[in-house]
Write a structure and sequence with these properties.
This is 3-methyladenine DNA glycosylase. Pfam families: Adenine_glyco (PF03352). One of its GO terms (molecular function) is DNA-3-methyladenine glycosylase activity. There is one protein chain. The protein is mainly α and about 200 residues long. It has a single domain, classed as Endonuclease III, domain 1, CATH 1.10.340.30. The protein contains eleven helices and two strands. The protein has helices at about 25-30, 40-50, 55-60, 65-70, 75-80, 85-90, 100-120, 120-125, 145-155, 165-175, 190-195, and strands spanning about 5, 10-15. It has a two-stranded antiparallel sheet. Helix 2 packs antiparallel against helix 7 and helix 2 (about 40-50) crosses helix 10 (about 165-175).
């Protein structure tokens, strides 16, 4: 089965873009682009946790609501959320009202603060788990990898929640720790070039 599709604009993209009209813009401007910003990394790992058992389209259409509800995913602020905030979030129809996932995000914000104190930044930590590209060849052929298993295990050891290997692998795909754009996708080489020139955080 082909892993690429031709859009109405004539561009060859990853086939999953056909699943929803919102996906083209997300694919073309975000997915797989290497990210070293701590807030964006924290946002994504939280949203991947909320996606568990749901579709990414559901999360993407609610993303702005999530950002408002979770203080722009500033983990220093989210770490201060209390029981009243949990109840507020459970009453917010604009997000996924799942107590376990909400409480996990607040917990993970606290763990993120600890990680920054220990590692210097979330980016320095996550990019330390960047796998060799041949671990995920051919592209889009797996939903977990040895590295996502190792990263998941380490995060859980540090007290993070809703960070299973599949969730972590999706995070790695989206944040550019790997280039999982399909062969033939018009962005694959661009992402390779961006990753090649990226200064890895340390």
């Amino acid at each position: 089965m082909s892993k690429t599709t031709i859009g109405t604009d004539g561009k060859c993209r990853c086939t999953w873009c056909d699943a929803a009209p919102e996906f083209n813009a997300y694919h073309d401007t975000e997915w797989g682009f290497p990210v070293t910003d701590d807030i964006r990394l924290f946002e994504k790992i939280c949203l991947e946790g909320f996606q568990s058992g749901l579709s990414w389209r559901t999360i993407l259409t609610k993303r702005e609501n999530f950002r408002k509800a979770f203080a722009g995913f500033d983990f220093h602020k989210v770490a201060q959320f209390d029981d009243a905030d949990v109840e507020r979030l459970l009453g917010d129809a604009g997000i996924i009202r799942h107590r376990g996932k909400i409480e996990a995000s607040i917990n993970n914000a606290k763990r993120a603060c600890e990680m920054v104190a220990e590692e210097g930044s979330l980016a320095a930590y996550f990019w330390r788990f960047e796998p060799k590209q041949d671990e995920v060849d051919p592209p889009q052929s797996m939903s977990t990898s040895p590295t996502s298993v190792a990263l998941s295990k380490d995060l859980k050891k540090r007290g993070w929640k809703f960070v299973g290997p599949t969730t972590v692998f999706a995070f790695m795909q989206a944040m550019g720790l790997i280039n999982d754009h399909a062969q033939g996708c018009f962005l694959r080489q661009q992402i390779d070039d961006m990753r090649g020139s990226l200064i890895r955080p340390s």
